[in-house]
Amino acid sequence: MEIIHDNVHSKSIMFHDLGSGLMVQSNQHVIIRGEEAIVLDPGGHKIYTKLFAGLTPVFPISQVKYIFFSHQDPDIIAAANGWLMVTDAKAFISEIWLRFLPHFGIDSYVENRISPIPDQGMKLSLGGEDLLLIPAHFLHSSGNFMIYDTFSKILYSGDLGASLGAPYQYVEDFNDHIQYIEGFHSRYLPSSKPVQMFLNTVKDLDIEMVAPQHGAIFRGKETVHSFFNWLSTLKCGYELMGEAYNLPG
Ligand SMILES: [Fe+2]
Ligand SMILES: [Fe+2]
């Protein structure tokens, strides 16, 4: 567990080492503000038990106000039912994925606490401060949102900025960090168009930190700037795949 932002009435916490076995490393972010808390991308079943245990001494789980699912991947939503059962929280997921979520098994009496995020995004209030649920479709999921916390100025970027295998929690040297992000971004992102849209969307936001759902955090304006700069020239997805695939054989 790592406290990534700390203030008298607000804490931003990252759990980053709850996975096991073949499971892709993932971060579970929690924002606690006043008497309220939101859990971001809580992960699958094995993470659920550990996150529950890790969070209990810090915040009463039954009082979690919101659960946010940036998109529909199993490393995000697989334990949705468990979280809805042990809290009275409202859960949010893209309107285009809402009816896919129950395939992971959602008990009918908690279903009414799942709310759709409209394509254009929305705002939530946590401890009296705004959280912006910003559209970031196709990065990589076709119904995908990020959260910008107006209080801590952290952008929770979901899979954008994901790194795999970096042996640290904070990026110190961006150029050296490229080796850990380029594989993921070139294959999981479909094309550079949604990346450009993202950069245009957040250009006026005051961002102190970019906290992805996998791997290391980009801390400080300079590192965030280097990351955005790298994104601005990125070619990815089908742009790297030519005009047709070779048939197997
Ligand atoms: Fe994903
Ligand atoms: Fe992910």
CATH topology description: Metallo-beta-lactamase, Chain A
User: Percent range for helical residues?
Assistant: 10-25%
Category from helices, strands and their pairing: alpha/beta
**How does the overall form come out from the CA principal axes?**
globular
Please work out how many helical segments DSSP would assign: 6
Calculate the mean pLDDT score and round it. Answer: 97
Report the major sheet.
7 strands, mixed
Tally of separate domains: 1
**Side-by-side strand order of the widest sheet:** 1-2-3-4-5-6-7
SSE string: EEEEHEHHEEEEEEHHEEH
Oligomer: single chain
CATH superfamily annotation: Ribonuclease Z/Hydroxyacylglutathione hydrolase-like
The span between the termini is 47 Å
User: What is the level 1 CATH name?
Assistant: Alpha Beta
The number of distinct β-strands equals: 13
- Give the name of the CATH architecture: 4-Layer Sandwich
- Which stretches are poorly predicted, pLDDT < 50 over at least 5 residues? none
Bound molecules: fe (ii) ion
Q: Rounded to an integer, what's the Rg over CA atoms?
A: 18 Å
Strand content: 25-35%
Keywords:
249 residues, seven-stranded mixed sheet, six-stranded mixed sheet, 13 strands, 24% helix, binds fe (ii) ion
Note down, in words, how this protein is organized.
With 249 residues, this protein is α/β, with parallel strands linked by helices. It has one domain (2-240): Ribonuclease Z/Hydroxyacylglutathione hydrolase-like (Metallo-beta-lactamase, Chain A, 4-Layer Sandwich). The chain has helices at 45-55, 74-77, 80-86, 174-188, 192-201, 221-232; strands at 2-7, 10-15, 28-33, 36-40, 66-68, 90-94, 114-117, 122-126, 129-135, 145-149, 154-158, 209-212, 218-219. It has a 7-stranded mixed beta sheet with strand order 1-2-3-4-5-6-7, with no helix packed on it. The chain has a 6-stranded mixed beta sheet with strand order 8-9-10-11-12-13, with helices on one face. A hairpin with a 4-residue loop joins strand 10 and strand 11. The longest helix has 15 residues, at 174-188. The termini are far apart. The mean pLDDT is 97.
